[in-house]
Design goal:
By secondary structure, this protein is mainly alpha-helical. The chain is built from six helices and no strands. The protein starts with a helix and ends in a 5-residue tail after the last helix.
Length: about 160
């Protein structure tokens, strides 16, 4: 039982660290926040298909990322919650892997435009922000996340032995 808990804790910590590192990296290209964002770290939001530890791992990774890149408090809170909601619903859909990318796409597309508009005072209209954030999420989660999902699937039992 201790080994199982340690394994889950380690997986969650590794996912959080990887999410943070990828977000920090993409921030150098100006794509981690703003009206147009393609966080490649969001591809990791498919990982709850393989392990429940990805849910808190993604939440903590997003929280740390937002802190490190200097996001507003509202972005830190609501952006992290959007990732948590997306990861949680991906976990609920783990038996329907073809839909794994949909929850994070929807949660971020519905929440982040309001954060951008009201926390950062972006002059863009909400429909434009829904479009740009949604497209960024489709690229990050829908394309890269789905590629990651199917790339990891053949090795899932080795990578996530206690969960898959």
């Amino acid at each position: 039982m201790k080994h199982f808990k340690l394994s889950l804790l380690t997986q969650g910590a590794l996912i959080a660290a990887l999410y943070t590192a990828l977000t920090y990296l993409i921030n150098y290209f100006g794509l981690a926040n703003g009206a147009i964002q393609v966080r490649i770290s969001e591809a990791l939001t498919v990982l709850p298909v393989f392990t429940p530890s990805a849910v808190p791992g993604l939440f903590i990774g997003c929280l740390l990322s937002n802190l490190l890149i200097g996001a507003s408090i509202w972005d830190i809170v609501f952006g992290s919650l959007a990732s948590f909601i997306g990861a949680l619903f991906t976990y609920f859909l783990r038996n329907h892997e073809k839909w794994a990318a949909l929850p994070p796409i929807l949660s971020n597309t519905l929440i982040i435009p309001f954060v951008l508009k009201f926390a950062y005072g972006l002059p863009d209209t909400l429909p434009y922000l829904f479009l740009t954030v949604g497209l960024g999420e489709i690229i990050s989660c829908g394309v890269f996340g789905t590629i990651l999902l199917y790339a990891l699937k053949p090795r899932a039992k080795q990578l996530f032995p206690n969960n898959y």
